[in-house]
Amino acid sequence: MNDILPAQTPRWQQLESSMREVLQAYCYDEIRMPIVESTRLFKRSIGEATDIVEKEMYTFTDRNQDSLSLRPEGTASCVRAALQNGLLHNQVQRLWYMGPMFRHERPQKGRYRQFHQIGVEAFGMQGPDIDAEMILMTARLWQKLGLTDLRLEINSLGSAEARGVYRDKLVEYFSAHQDQLDEDSQRRLTRNPLRILDSKNPDMQAVISQAPEFAEYLDQESADHFAQLLGLLDTAGIDYTVNPRLVRGLDYYCKTVFEWITDSLGAQGTVCAGGRYDGMVEHFGGKPTPAVGFAMGLERLIAMLEEADIALPDSAPDVYLMCMQAQDMNTAMQIAENLRNDIPGLRVLQHCGAGSFKSQIKKADKSGATLALLLGETERQNNSISIKHLREQQDQIEIPQTDLSSYLKKALQKA
Ligand code: ATP
Ligand code: MG
Question: What is the pLDDT of residues 285-302, one digit of tens each?
Answer without folding.
Answer: 999 999 999 999 999 999
